[in-house]
Specification:
Elements (H helix, E strand, L loop, with lengths): L1 H21 L8 H5 L21 E7 L12 E8 L6 E11 L1 E8 L7 E8 L8 E11 L12 H9 L3 E7 L7 E4 L1
Antiparallel strand pairs: 1-2, 2-3, 3-6, 4-5, 4-7, 7-8
């Protein structure tokens, strides 16, 4: 019993010491620390009226269950989106697995559970021919105002606001399901 009490005291002292030495700091992160984090938020307490403090990183898991109507497929995907701090561009990377004959991928504008129009191209199979199985990165690039189409043509700010409000989804189209085999809301 005495050994157990000594052990518990040792653990408590170790925890106390750890928190006192390695405890949290109230100091704000500097830019180089922010770039090395995988955070969805960038915060700068000194610039209350700036665009900083807004969300700049987004991901979406793509699956057939997210399609409208849902589609039964083994295909999956991941879309990674980063908005420039000055909001002059949007970078994206599209990764897929277990999908065949991808024909296109786009940003569409609509809330989850609804279908909407294309507002930006992410990937186009230039010859629209079957291309076989796809596993890995199928597209990455940068979207600027020149790439924004549809009902917000040329308006990158509107696209960024739609991403932040959750009304943009990524859709991957294939010969197996031309209207979209996998989808994910940003």
């Amino acid at each position: 019993m005495k050994t157990r009490l000594n052990f518990e005291k040792s653990i408590l002292l170790l925890l106390f010491f750890s928190f006192s030495v390695f405890g949290c700091s109230d100091e704000p992160l500097i830019d180089s620390q922010l770039e090395s984090t995988d955070s969805k938020y960038v915060i700068n307490k000194n610039e209350s009226n700036s665009k900083k403090g807004s969300m700049f990183h987004f991901t979406a898991h793509l699956s057939g269950k997210n399609e409208v109507p849902p589609f039964d497929t083994d295909a999956t995907g991941q879309a990674i989106v980063r908005i420039a701090p000055d909001e002059s561009w949007i970078a994206y990377k599209l990764i897929v697995a277990n999908i065949e004959n991808v024909t296109a991928s786009h940003f569409h504008m609509a809330p989850a559970g609804a279908n909407g129009g294309v507002v930006a191209f992410l990937f186009m199979n230039p010859v629209a021919q079957p291309s076989g199985p796809a596993n890995g990165v199928i597209a990455e690039g940068v979207i600027t105002s020149e790439n924004v189409i549809g009902n917000i043509a040329g308006d990158l700010g509107a696209l960024i606001e739609a991403i932040r409000s959750g009304t943009i989804y990524v859709n991957v189209h294939s010969t197996n399901k031309p209207s979209g085999e996998i989808r994910g809301q940003l």
